[in-house]
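Case study B.
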Amino acid sequence: MFVYEKRLQYPIKITHPNPRLAKIIMSQYGGPDGELGASVRYLSQRFTMPYRELQGLLTDIGTEELGHLEMVGTLVYQLTRNLTPDEIEKSGYDAYFIDHTAGIYPVSAGGTPWGADGIASTGDTIADLTEDLAAEQKARKTYDNILRLSDDPEVNDVIRFLREREIVHYQRFGEGLGLVRDRAKQKNIYALNPSFDKDIPKIK
Amino acid sequence: MPRQTTSTVQYKPEDGLARGTLFPGLDLPFGITQNPGVPNVLAGTPAGELYAIGFAANELTLYLDTHPRDAEGFNILKELLALQNTAHAEYVKRYGALKIDDLTDFSDYDWTQKDFPWVLGGAR
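Model:
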């Protein structure tokens, strides 16, 4: 089960609303490489992970990603508060505003709603962990691009924190994959899928 | 990729929080800008203490998930968890309940009396 702790992982206080920035940061809420996908990916993959270390890692990183989802939602919420219709139109936030007003909705910066097609849960230990490595790099890339486009120091302070977490998670998933390789006990790590096979499968 | 070989080379928790990692070897910022030592609004408050210690404990948890036999790392985690309990209690006394469990110390239903953390100024 999950229990809510009533604080953010990293404090956020954005002085100046900025709907242009909100529109691009939104992609880390509901975009293809965003935090919603990250948490659902890890919290789904963990069920069939073969080793308790990996079950723990996916549970703990997946839980941290839920905290990041809350942080990104907070950024968008604070960046879009007290807007006038004029500001909404001029900033390009109007297309989002028409359907969602100032509500928080999981969607990419390009307007595609969140979907599970952006994540994989394959039931194959090596495929899943390799997906996770790529996912962390893709999220890091999005934060890099936000830093390229944002000139608000209060926003960038938070984005730099979130970006660095992707690098740490990438390291941990790499170590998790190493742990699977160590336990394969054979030269061919693909000989069986430890999420599914109890023994080397016989082909009919 | 190479495994991290030690948990003992660490930033102080408040610097770790600011940088997004406790471990200097994983501290790889974009461009040349790093976050200053203590996050903006929280410097020197019980809230800042809880954020920093809580962050350090979480960071070490992920490390221990892939290094479960690092006894030294586990000792550091236990020290952090003890500090976190203190910081948690201080925070609750000053700013309000963090978890429903904290309500045992309150005379009224504090949970909805104080701001939620996404509200501007709610992140104390």
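Chain A touches chain B through 46 residues (CB under 8 Å). The remaining cases will be described in the next quarterly update.
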